[in-house]
Amino acid sequence: MADKVLEVKNVSKTFTKDGVMFGAVKNLSLEVYAGEILGIAGESGCGKSTLSRLCMGLLKPDEGEIYVCGKRLGRSTFKELRPAMQTVFQNPGDTFNPSYTVGSGLFEAGRSLGIGKDVCKKRMTELLSLTGLSESVLKRRPKELSGGQLQRLAIVRALLCEPKILIADEAVSSLDVSVSANIINLFSDLRDRLGIAVMFISHDLGVIGCISDRVAVMYSGEIIEIGRAEKVLGSPEKEYTKRLLMA
Ligand SMILES: Nc1ncnc2c1ncn2[C@@H]1O[C@H](COP(=O)(O)OP(=O)(O)OP(=O)(O)O)[C@@H](O)[C@H]1O
Ligand SMILES: [Mg+2]
Predict the structure, then answer these.
(1) Ligand 1: which of 49, 200, 220 to mutate, judged by most atoms within 8 Å of the beta carbon?
(2) How many whole angstroms from 47 Cα to the centroid of ligand 2?
């Protein structure tokens, strides 16, 4: 059995809106294994990004526990576990400082993660090749690159510290269809070649269907259906999933 890279156990997170408390994530449990892509689907506001921020240790659960590679995520383990979990966000332009070349941005990211310059250089060369980019992009500034190139570079940045899990939150939503398809293929390739686990969050069920091994459907802070992608998307059990598929 593959390694359990991420375990979310009975996690809840409450926010206050207009003075009223509401559960953004409610008693949610899931597991992600090495070498699999777990798609998280659900309409806007159902709690997908809150879940990703909880998994990254950027939000503290009100209740429940999160384990990364078997270790409980918390204030005392955050720094140690941070290299194991990396994120790729919706707007790749935000990943890099517009005033510097993306090469210096990547070195700076490596430095902040405690990766020495020589190791960083070697990994950058390998990862550029893996993500289908030429070394010449390193000399450019973000505004001189396309959305697809920038998202590939954001993935290079996320992979510099050899993470065990990548959390991609709407990572292809700002890209046009053909670029989005390329990046989806890249995630599948990374799963196969690096054996990495991916939590792939998207409101787009078409994208989720293309990329995921398993799919979890969220509704109002809860997972209402989870299973193999072909089962959940091909013959869903819950009315809500059926409605989502028809939307
Ligand atoms: N820091 C916060 N403080 C208060 N409310 C918040 C906070 N973060 C999120 N929320 C609320 O929690 C709910 C879930 O938000 P979340 O961003 O997790 O949804 P989402 O599923 O990622 O939506 P989308 O598909 O639009 O990105 C929303 O009602 C949102 O307004
Ligand atoms: Mg979101």
Answers:
(1) 49
(2) 7
Residue that the structure tokens 């505004």 belong to: 143
Beta bridge partners of 225: 217
Query: How many domains would you assign to the chain?
Result: 1
CA of 240 to the centre of ligand 2 (A): 19
Residue 36 domain flag? yes
CA-closest residue to ligand 1 atom 24 = 44
Q: How far apart are CA 170 and CA 49, in angstroms?
A: 9
For residue 138, being part of any structural domain is answered with no
CATH code of the domain containing 240: 3.40.50.300
Domain region containing 9? 4-90+165-246
Q: Taking a C-beta distance cutoff of 8 angstroms, is the pair 163, 83 a contact?
A: yes
Question: Which of 14, 18, 48, 50 should be mutated for ligand 1, with most atoms under 8 A from CB?
Answer: 50
**Residue 103, in any domain of the structure:** no
Ligand 1 atom at minimal distance to the Cα of residue 16: 4
Q: pTM for the whole thing?
A: 0.94
pLDDT digits (tens, 9 = 90+) for 165-207: 999 999 888 888 888 888 899 899 889 989 999 999 998 999 9
**Residue 210 pLDDT level (bands cut at 50, 70, 90):** very high
Q: In this structure, are residues 38 and 198 in contact, taking their beta carbons and an 8 Å threshold?
A: yes
Q: How far is the CA of 45 from the centre of ligand 2 (A)?
A: 7
Q: How many CB atoms lie within 10 A of CB 62?
A: 14
| Residue 36, C-beta contacts closer than 8 angstroms, at least 6 positions apart | 2, 191, 197, 198, 213, 214
Tell me if 127 is assigned to some domain: no
- Quick check: 225 and 236 in contact, CB under 8 A? yes
